[in-house]
Amino acid sequence: MKNIAVIGAGTMGNGIAHTFAQNGYKVQLIDISEDSLKKGMDTISKNLDRMVAREKISEEQKQETLDNITTYTDISEGVEYASLVVEAATENTELKLKIFRHLDQNTAEDTILASNTSSISITQIASVVSNPERVIGMHFMNPVPVMKLVEIIRGYNTSDEVTKTIMELSEKLNKVPVEVNDYPGFVANRILMPMINEAIETLYNGVAGVYEIDTVMKLGMAHPMGPLQLADFIGLDVCHSILEVMHEGFKNPKYAPCPLLTNMVRAGKIGVKSGEGFYDYSENKKAEKVSAQFSS
């Protein structure tokens, strides 16, 4: 297994492509947008530069990693010779089903089809593939090159052989694979998202402010990042989508997104990527922080 296709050049997709390429795999990075592919490759290059600066890799290893990645805007062409396809598109059920229908028609029968979904049913995704035993979940954590965990999600029909192959492959990437069964949110988000949602409810109910809530969780629970800041980094739209999937899947009101979260998503205040969420990430704020550092 040396040819890996990755669909989606966003935050997760470029991180997955980076990780495979750095470990010697030939990667076909696919996105319908040339601009997204350029941004994805720029991100990979910058992240590799940081690793060179920290002397974790050499300049030669950086170039080898970049040389291992080829970009495509045509999915059919990009997946033609892949032994494994990892879908890392937007967390939208209909989009993922559309992609997997296309993969079913344009990959070899023994090509393993994986989804990086953080909450959507692998069994549902596999239902549009003629041989669903080859479909599995590979839920990487962000940032992918740094985080060790990979949630390996078995769909109802995922074969033992495919599961074993993906577990072993994850270990070759210097990751720690953990096998879980296919239920909404899996393990990571089934526990994480209700915590984030409860933090938003705490803010919504006026118990404490953003800074205070995050400080309690960081200093009191030894979390490296407060839940509201973490939500900003994940993307409030993504958090909202995952909660909706769990709410629909379990029919349990405890998973219903907080009204404040829903309103913020509707208003386009979705965190780091929009420049504002529970915190302000605008250029003016960045300039204020830099000015404060130099004046202190």
From TrEMBL:
Record-linked Pfam families: 3HCDH, 3HCDH_N
Q: Does the keyword Oxidoreductase apply?
A: yes
Protein name per the record: 3-hydroxybutyryl-CoA dehydrogenase
Known PANTHER family for this protein? 3-HYDROXYACYL-COA DEHYDROGENASE FAMILY PROTEIN (PTHR48075), 3-HYDROXYBUTYRYL-COA DEHYDROGENASE (PTHR48075:SF5)
**Family membership noted in the UniProt record:** Belongs to the 3-hydroxyacyl-CoA dehydrogenase family.
NCBIfam families linked to this entry:
PRK05808.1 (NF004474)
Entry keyword annotation includes Cell membrane:
no
Which organism is this protein's natural source? Christiangramia sabulilitoris
Could you say which residues bind NAD(+) here? G8, A9, G10, T11, M12, G13, D31, E91, K96, S118, N142, K273
Taxonomically, the superkingdom here is: Bacteria
